[in-house]
Small hydrophilic protein (Streptomyces pacificus), 63 residues
Amino acid sequence: MGMSDEVGGRVRQMRQKAEELKQAAERVNDPEESRRLKEKARRLQEQSEQESAMGSGDVYPME
C-alpha cells in the first residue's frame, strides 16, 4: 500500500466518523451534547480536508 493509499484510507475513515457524529448529534435529546458532537464532527471534517490536501500534494506544511 502506497503513501497516498494510506492517506486516502485515513481520510475516508475520518469523514465517515464525522458523518456518524453528525447523525448522533441529530438523535441526542440534550442540546449541549448535540452541540459538542457537531463541533467534534466539524473538527474531524476539517482535519480530513487538510490531510487530503497534503496527501495529494496541494498543500505544503509550514516549515
